[in-house]
Design goal:
This protein is an alpha+beta fold. It contains ten helices and 18 strands.
Length: 381
């Protein structure tokens, strides 16, 4: 019995297959081809060992509210799953219901409630995880989630505008700043006060741990003497798929790693023009060395000392294709993107740190896979 010999692509072939071609008016080689049966004689069955060897993570930035990192060696479907989970499936806390006792400001109740709902909140991480997700009443569950200390957090706003104590003196001096003339002329997010209920004091105790706005200086409304607001806001945990106010990121995106290949020399004024086709820092200018000029058919013969264009930092390129519009660069440059190199940018709204959010998205995807696996096992019984 004869065995068929497995072919192995060269490194150059492997890299070429991963490159998405960016042309003047088209994009080519979009679809992945590393699956069984596409390349005759080659084995592309999925292997955990091969995935462990080829997959890696590169951290570019890791700040509390901003993170940038690369996932290298995964399929677009997996990268997009992480992005969608980050946006729509990580539970966060936000104001859901507002009960008004008094509102004589110029902002209508429903408009003020909308503004309140969009305020990002934060607090003790352990306490936020202790809170249960809230579910609205549905046909299948007409009662929904009950209002309890582990489902609902209460914030209160009780504020009134009045004249400043030295109002008359300031008027005589020509003062016209409302914040100087009146008390509470502007109502900010920091005026919302946390009101603990039940066991919440075990988790949300102290200035650093109570439920509070991420950005205390968000302007809610303006008032004048005689106007007042008194309300109670109920905060619950839900996900961005229910409403955008529950999304923990703003935004979460990814892009493919740009690839710029200068295949023929670009010299002199053309080099400067070529650099101007990209954002600053992508293309650099270097002098042609005597050694380069001495190489036959290199394109540098007789150009020693002139400036040539070189790729300095393709990572920051936006692949605008501007250089492909100019006839002098035709046939001298190739643009592309690496299909399995995803550069993520995650900006947290403040309730959780950006690195926590991505780890949470991995956890949720694992739970989805486990659930699917269990469903398949039940079907096959």
């Amino acid at each position: 019995m004869s065995s068929r010999r497995q072919k192995h692509p060269t490194q150059a072939e492997h890299q070429a297959r991963k490159l998405v071609g960016i042309n003047a008016e088209t994009v080519t080689n979009i679809t992945s081809t590393d699956f069984p049966g596409h390349h005759p004689g080659e084995n592309h069955e999925w292997s955990l060992d091969f995935f462990k060897k080829s997959f890696h993570v590169i951290i570019h930035q890791n700040d509390p509210l901003n993170a940038s990192f690369s996932l290298v060696g995964i399929d677009a479907s997996i990268a997009n799953a992480f992005r969608r989970i980050l946006i729509a499936e990580i539970p966060t806390l936000a104001i859901e219901t507002v009960y008004y006792y008094n509102n004589t400001s110029i902002v209508q109740d429903e408009v003020l409630a909308q503004r309140l709902g969009l305020i990002p909140l934060t607090g003790n991480r352990e306490g936020l995880r202790w809170l249960h997700r809230f579910h609205k009443p549905t046909d299948d569950n007409p009662d929904g989630t009950p209002i309890q200390d582990n489902t609902t957090v209460v914030l209160e706003l009780d504020i009134a505008c009045d004249f400043a104590d030295d109002y008359d003196e300031k008027i005589k001096k020509g003062e016209n700043d409302p914040k100087a003339l009146y008390k509470n002329a502007h109502v900010y997010a920091k005026d919302l006060k946390y009101s603990p209920k039940g066991r919440q004091n075990e988790y949300f105790l102290g200035e650093e741990h109570i439920i509070r706005p991420v950005n205390p200086d968000i302007l809610l409304t303006k008032m004048r003497p005689g106007q007042a607001i008194k309300l109670e806001a109920h905060c619950v945990k839900s996900i961005g798929a229910d409403h955008a106010k529950y999304s923990p990121v703003a935004p979460a995106t990814y892009r493919l790693l740009p690839k710029i290949d200068i295949i023929k020399p670009i010299l002199g004024q053309d080099a400067k023009k070529f650099a101007g086709c990209f954002r600053k820092g992508v293309i650099g200018l270097q002098k042609v060395t005597e050694e380069e000029a001495s190489v036959e058919n290199s394109g540098y013969e007789g150009h020693a000392g002139e400036k040539k264009a070189v790729v300095k930092n393709a990572f920051i390129d936006t692949v605008s294709r501007e250089c492909l519009r100019h006839p002098e660069f035709e046939g001298k440059v190739k643009l592309g993107r690496v299909r399995d190199h995803f550069i993520f940018s995650v900006e947290s709204t403040g309730q959780f740190e950006s690195e926590e959010l991505f780890l949470e998205s991995v956890k949720i995807l694992k739970e989805k896979c486990a659930s699917l696996r269990q469903d398949l096992a039940n079907v096959l019984r």
